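User: Could you walk me through two proteins back to back? I'd like the raw sequence and the structure tokens for each, with a short line separating them so I can tell where one ends and the next begins.

Assistant: Of course. Protein one, sequence then structure:
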Amino acid sequence: MIRKTITLLFVFLMVSSIFMTAQTTNTSTLGFEPEQKSQVAETDLDRVTIDTNVLPNNGLEEWNTATNPQFFTTSRTVEKNRWLETTTVFEGSYSWGMYARAIDPAHYSEIYLTNQSQATWSNPTNLTLDFEWYLDSIGNPVDQDYFYLRIQMGGHYLFYYLGCENTGVSNSSYGDAFFMIDGATQTWNHHHRNLTSDFVEVFGVDPTTYQTMYWYVRSYTDTYARVFIDDVNLVNGTTIKYGPGVSGGDFEGGGGWTSSSPSDPADISQSSVRHEGDWSINMTAISNDYLARASVTARLDKRLSSINQGQLSFWWRIDDWINSTTNTLASMRVNAKNSTHSLNMYYYLCVGGAGTLPPVIGNDMKFQADSFNVTDTWNFFECNIWEDYNTYSTTDDLWIEDIYISVSANSEDSLLSVLIDEMSFTASIMNDMGYETQTGVGTPIHGWFDPETNEDGYTVTDFASSGTKAGNITLEDDDDFSYERELGNIEINGTTELIFDFNVYIETFNDTSEDFIFFEFQFGDGEALTYVIANASSEFESWSAEEDNFIILQDTVVTDDWLNFQLDLVHDYELIVGSLPDTTLDQIHLAALASKTNKLTAFLDDVYIYYDPAPGITNVGHGSASPLTGQIVTISATVVDATLETVVLNYRLDNATWMTQAMFQLGDFPFGSNFANLPDGTNVEYYIIATDAFGKSTDAMNGTDFFSFTVVATPQGFPLLPIVAVGVVLVIGVVIVLYMFVFKKKE
């Protein structure tokens, strides 16, 4: 945090009337004399905001499509089934039935059939396939809904589209073969092909092997694609692979056919029924006797601790619930782990039937949410994951990988529809922070990777800038590392004052090598910004995402001293890219290299990304309430801000016109004004305005009033300062004490 102590010196010199002659005139002079001094200032964490909603979708308002919330992984079961059919059969007692129906074109449904016996044949010289097929219904048989057979032979695939057409494919001698087979619906059709001949026709050589055979039904529409298959005969010369009584070719028994598991439909979509904003997530599961499940997953990769516990919250609503059995339920699962334990934490919003929570496996934990099973109203869910985990196992090192919310139904004619809105997970933006809650000295730093990962390039040390722990980077002899982590897609634009703040101590660095250390930020618009902490060549550029998008923090690498850097991500982005950001801050990378025969040793401490507020002005004062002429009066104030640009004194004399004087940050810049006839009793009022690079400003007032004092004449006999002019001279000197950085882009 940049801390500036602003000092204003008022010197009041008044000549007593007994020293004045007839030629004396009363004059007043106001002068400003800035002076710059350097002062290292610690970051005031009580002033800044180090945490934010790190869930990568602000309030669930961001959607790629109406069925795809941005930054979430979605999963939904689709409607598909298979069975032994007893009514629609070609001969005997059974045929094989299958159907599929899509939720929408973006979420198709597919089911397959194959035989468990898929032994490879070599040199199939006269391989023929016969079977009966019945296309009961199909939505759009051209380029949307398909019933097809896929056979793998000799490293190629042969596709046979039955009663449908795929116009987007074509034969290729080095790829696959495609055959469009006509056939009427709702009647039995006979399929006969010499597979060997078809292979030779397209690829020009004999097949060396027969490998696999699958039937598929795929639907992109909301109409059932339903088919039946009977009497499968696969024969190579006189050898029968499938046929009546052989591997169940007639589906009458004795064969091991396998297919996709049946499931019922579930969906995820935008809903205008919301608690706030424009949208909520609607998760609906509809069961006709098979499992229907919709789920959304948010990847977090957050490290929690006693000082960064993580607060998860959202609003939820049971919008519809039909046939409320124990198999209809909604829950949230949090995957949590540390170096010794890994478990799932289940938070149940609703469970049908008697409301009994399902059993857990192993060390998993379960919790019942407030407003459990309450329908048709918005309910608020909130939990402290770190506290909940510590009811099982006390830890100060907890890694949250992801959050998974699911809605499921698995009973005949059951439906469950749940809305989720305003979901947030509040935690520190950076996992590192002060490193004080890391594990023992010498262990891997947790926060850049999964705690189960045994990484030794970045470890805990007791050599710290503050506190008792920091991070140690020790690499030597052509060793390197590159770690990255998600930041939660944080919004960043011209008004978000995001500051990257860290301390670094470089102990060993060869300034004639290719060694380097850098942080790199990646943004949602594809841009990158690299801060090079130390380098001796341009080798680091080959490691960064954008070779030209970097800022060198040290032209000459400082060793054996702790350095603090406070970096304005917004305006550094503008410096590199040429415009202010209007995107998201997605990832941070940490990379380092020690080239051949070299060693690099560095330490990092107090690594934060935070939001900096408007400048803080404190400790405003002017000493004596009634200064005497001839005395020095000091007006002082402490101004704190990471991007401070100006500090302005506003003052007036005897309720006259307000005047301003800027206190510049760099260089000597004198200012002067003359005031005539300034007698004792003059009242001086003032206040201070500080403004940062984002246009945020703070006025320092004395409550609701201005700061003020009144000049009092010096009593006779009171020692005066030497006087070189006759009259009253008011001199204001300004001393600015500041700590700031000046960076430049490496050419």
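----
Protein two, same layout:
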Amino acid sequence: MAKIVKKIIKITIPAGKATMAPPIGPTLAPYGINAQDFCAQFNEKTRENDGILTPVILTIYEDRTFGFELKTPPTSELIRRELRIKLGSARPNLDKVGKLSKEQVMKIVEVKMPDLNTSDPEQAAKIIAGTAKQMGVEVEL
């Protein structure tokens, strides 16, 4: 018999660094979920991506159990990590903060491909390039 879904929560947490502190503890407490169990499972699954922001879709069931699905990190996070920059540009058309090579874009495409709405790597590269341009990053395609 299928479990009855009580709530679906979307939350973004640094990989390998989930704790009972906000936003996790206060988000899960009203549903009677053991946040410590969630944190332990999340940290175990995301240990290799230490510190990178990771979106999670958390499904809470009526019987107070839960399941979660990890999504790929936000594109902007991957671009910032690839270029080793702290932030994108406040004025992306005027101030450039870095330059992505074709190889760097394809590396990001490999990571993001499961969550993009295309199966064509070249089209995915254009999606990544669009995000990069909005951050003030030049792209070589």
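The radius of gyration is 18 Å.

Let me know if you want the two compared in more detail.
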